[in-house]
Structure formats: structure tokens, C-alpha cells
Amino acid sequence: MQLSESLTAAYNAQVKLEFESSFVYLQMAADFELRSLPGFSRWMRIQSGEEYTHAMKFIDFVIARGGRLELLALDKPAPTPETVVGVFEAALRHEQRVTRAIHDLYTRALEERDYASLPLLQWFVNEQTEEEATVSTILERLRMVGEDRSGILFLDRELGQRAGNPGGGAAEAESAAEA
Ligand code: FEO
């Protein structure tokens, strides 16, 4: 069954939001690098890459269902908050917004009885639960350390251990040099 025009438009809007998420985290990654916090920066770069894969998942689905992908202009990320805690608060608010958008998509798919959408959207419902939980945990730990610089540096080291691909030419050059 071909994707309806209204659902196609809703998926295209979601693709925009996922690419914007990728930009939001990439901006935060670059700003953490400027603030000499490479661990937080790496975490954000990996997150940015994940958001790109989310956009691609929706894109592949729209194409597979015979919908017309329409890439929309992206909104610029908001200025990165000054404190690390402020950055993760902004990240949590952003994820909550994405969660609401996914839930709205789910409701719309149900209303249209587009059952083929449900497994994909359920995957995203679960993913959002996980993402919100991860960011909330980081936020709680950042609140525990407060202004304590050694605590921030400890968490920077810890988040820098995040497995995944930070992407980009510099990272590739680095891994090539290590190989
Ligand atoms: Fe793809 Fe973090 O929402």
C-alpha cells in the first residue's frame, strides 16, 4: 500500500527534525571541542551520527513505500548553552520534542490504519525512551558534580569512552594513523 500524501508529508517533516537533531549535536560537539572538553565532544559527535542514521531510516521507508521524499530547509541550531549542564538540559529538551513528534506520527499512522508504519515507529518509540534515559542519567551525574571542575573532567573522560563512530575526516585520519 502506497504511503498517503499526508503521511508522506509527516515523514518528510520528521526527516527534517532528525537532520536538525544531527546538526544540534554537531554544533554542541564543536563547541565542546573549543572549550577543551574532548570527551563530551566525542559523545556529541557520535550522537550526531546516530541522528543522521535516524533520518536515513525514515528516508528509506518513504522511498520503499512509494512516497515522494522532499528534503526541507533545516533550522539553525540554537546557541550552545554556556555550562555543560545547560548543554545536556538542552539535549534532553530536544529529545523530548523528538519523542512528541514520533508519538504524533504513531497516532497519525494509526488513524490512517497505515499498519506498515507501526514496526518502524515502534522502533523509534523504544529508541526515544532509551535516548531520554541516557541523557537524563548524564544530566543527573552532571548535577551531582555541580561546578566542581575535577568532577567535570572525570565525566569528560568517561563520556569520551563512548563506543561508536565520531565520523569526519579528522577522526578517520586519526584511526588510520593508529592502524
Ligand atoms: Fe533521532 Fe535523538 O532522536
Can you put this structure into words, describing what you see?
The chain is mainly alpha-helical. The protein has one domain: Ferritin (Up-down Bundle). 75% of the residues lie in helices and 0% in strands. It has 6 helices and no strands. The protein is elongated and about 55 Å long. 29% of the residues are buried. The mean pLDDT is 95. Bound molecules: MU-OXO-diiron (FEO). The site of MU-OXO-diiron (FEO) has 7 residues, from helix 1, helix 2 and helix 3.
Set down the secondary structure blueprint.
Layout: H1 5-34, H2 38-64, H3 84-111, H4 118-145, H5 149-159, H6 169-178
Helix pairs in contact: 1-2, 1-3, 2-5, 3-4
Bound molecules: MU-OXO-diiron.
List its salient traits.
single chain, 179 residues, elongated, binds MU-OXO-diiron, Ferritin, mainly alpha
If helices are DSSP runs of H or I spanning 4 or more residues, what is the number of helices? 6
Uncertain residue ranges: none
Shape: elongated
Q: Could you spell the SSE succession in H and E letters?
A: HHHHHH
- Count of discrete structural domains: 1
Summarize the entry for a quick read.
The protein is an all-alpha fold and 179 residues long.
